[in-house]
């Protein structure tokens, strides 16, 4: 039998941290690393129990559902080591130009039928500038918005001009997906054609335009627990509203095709640690959950997740939406059908909850 790595004093510390977060306080990076370093299954379950309470306290029984449309596929100029759509990798994934209105409206109909809050238009390219392509993207966003069937989101890569973010906002865009992907330290291990700073800069333009931020990362790329911890604190620092956690699904032909998978308990522990660091954010489980968690998928909610990417991913399949909806029903959870304005994420005061602020930022990202 595996020996518990927490003694009584440490379990009391876990309870103290859990209560502090429930009371609106924050945990330090040092405390967070102690949680990331828990080893035994019994300790991880104790951690998840608190993460579940924190989720219920701040999010109730609502689960935010999102889906995506691959609006422009393949032949991307960037060299992200995990990505099947990079032109640096021979993966045989589809390639096509920016989609016509019909497939986008079909995705909106399907989202509406399945009580999915948002449909994100995702484009495999480096980024978007002023020009005919931005005009076309804005048209799709306006059409989606006018349909009233779903919230139009987008993930269009790097933005280097405030005017672009402002035009997306004018077209009706409410939320933009742009992952930091990993810690600043680990970023060059998976991408060298653009920088972590390019990503943080894009988020700055979007926030200035009044667009909500969906930003998270990928775990299981060979990063350390410190990298995961720093990613979570950086996402807090940039003010991410939705935090997608992707779990690497190594695709044949990519640079990461042979990276060994993370054990499911390590994945669940990471989700729980993110909930402690980001108690009010939507923590969304995105790509890689079916292949990495298998029968343990439903445990993401007891680990603190409050949102789920449903439907197929960009280049890989997911379990059916019907199965996901049944999973939520069986857990007594409800799709957050109407979505919200993210007002529940606002903290009052300094947020230390103990009369003193123990926040430490990770690496400076903004
Ligand atoms: S992750 Fe995005 S930017 Fe990177 S290669 Fe894939 S599509 Fe291009």
Rg estimate, integer Å? 20 Å
Give the % helix. Answer: 25-40%
Number of strands: 10
Q: Structural class, from helix and strand content?
A: alpha/beta
Number of helices: 12
CATH class designation: Alpha Beta
What is the 3D form? Answer: globular
Report on the structure:
The chain is α/β, with parallel strands linked by helices and 366 residues long. It has a single domain, classed as Aldolase class I (TIM Barrel, Alpha-Beta Barrel). Helices cover 39% and strands 13% of the residues. It is built from twelve helices and ten strands. Strands 1, 2, 3, 4, 5, 6, 7, 8, 9 and 10 form a ten-stranded parallel β-sheet that branches. Helix 9 links the parallel strand 7 and strand 8 (282-285). Helix 1 packs parallel to helix 3 (41-59) and helix 3 (41-59) crosses helix 9. The longest helix is centred in the N-terminal third of the chain and has 19 residues, at 41-59. It is globular. Residues 348-366 have low confidence and may be disordered. The structure holds iron/sulfur cluster. Iron/sulfur cluster binds at residues 76, 78, 80, 83, 85-86, 124, 157.
Which tags fit this structure?
disordered C terminus, 366 residues, 12 helices, TIM Barrel, alpha/beta, globular, ten-stranded parallel β-sheet, binds iron/sulfur cluster
Topology, element by element:
Elements: H1 8-22, H2 29-36, H3 41-59, E1 62-72, H4 101-113, E2 118-123, H5 132-147, E3 151-155, H6 162-171, E4 175-177, H7 196-208, E5 212-214, E6 217-219, H8 225-238, E7 242-247, H9 264-277, E8 282-285, H10 289-293, H11 299-302, E9 307-309, H12 321-330, E10 334-335
Parallel strand pairs: 1-2, 1-9, 1-10, 2-3, 3-4, 4-5, 6-7, 7-8, 8-9
The structure holds iron/sulfur cluster (SF4).
């Amino acid at each position: 039998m595996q020996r518990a790595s927490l003694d009584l004093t440490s379990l009391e510390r876990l309870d103290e941290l859990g209560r502090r977060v429930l009371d609106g306080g924050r945990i330090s990076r040092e405390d967070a690393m102690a949680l990331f370093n828990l080893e035994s299954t019994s300790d991880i379950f104790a951690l998840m129990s608190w993460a579940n309470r924190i989720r219920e306290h701040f999010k109730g029984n609502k689960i935010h559902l999102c889906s995506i449309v691959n609006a422009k596929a393949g032949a991307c100029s960037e060299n992200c080591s995990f990505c099947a759509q990079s032109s640096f990798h021979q993966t045989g994934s589809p390639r096509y130009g920016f989609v016509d209105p019909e497939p986008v409206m079909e995705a909106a109909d399907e989202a509406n039928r399945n009580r999915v809050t948002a449909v994100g238009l995702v484009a495999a390219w480096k980024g978007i500038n002023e020009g005919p392509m931005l005009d076309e993207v804005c048209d799709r966003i306006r059409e989606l918005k006018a349909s009233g069937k779903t919230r139009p989101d987008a993930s269009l890569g790097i933005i280097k001009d405030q005017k672009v973010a402002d035009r997306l906002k004018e077209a009706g865009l409410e939320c933009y997906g742009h992952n930091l992907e990993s810690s600043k330290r680990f970023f060059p291990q998976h991408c060298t054609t653009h920088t972590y700073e390019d990503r943080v800069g894009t988020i700055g333009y979007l926030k200035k335009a009044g667009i909500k931020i969906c930003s998270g990362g990928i775990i299981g790329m060979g990063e350390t627990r410190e990298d995961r911890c720093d990613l979570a604190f950086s996402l807090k620092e940039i003010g991410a509203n939705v935090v997608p956690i992707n779990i690497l699904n190594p695709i044949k032909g990519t640079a990461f095709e042979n990276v060994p998978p993370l054990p499911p308990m390590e994945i669940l522990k990471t989700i729980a640690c993110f909930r402690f660091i980001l108690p009010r954010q939507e923590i969304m489980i995105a790509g890689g959950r079916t292949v990495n968690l298998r029968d343990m998928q439903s445990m993401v909610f007891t680990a603190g997740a409050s949102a789920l990417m449903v439907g197929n991913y960009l280049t890989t399949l997911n379990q059916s939406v019907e199965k996901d909806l049944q999973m939520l029903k069986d857990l007594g959870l409800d799709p957050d059908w109407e979505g919200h304005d993210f007002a529940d994420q606002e903290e009052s005061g300094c947020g230390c909850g103990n009369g003193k602020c123990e926040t430490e930022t990770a690496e400076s990202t903004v």
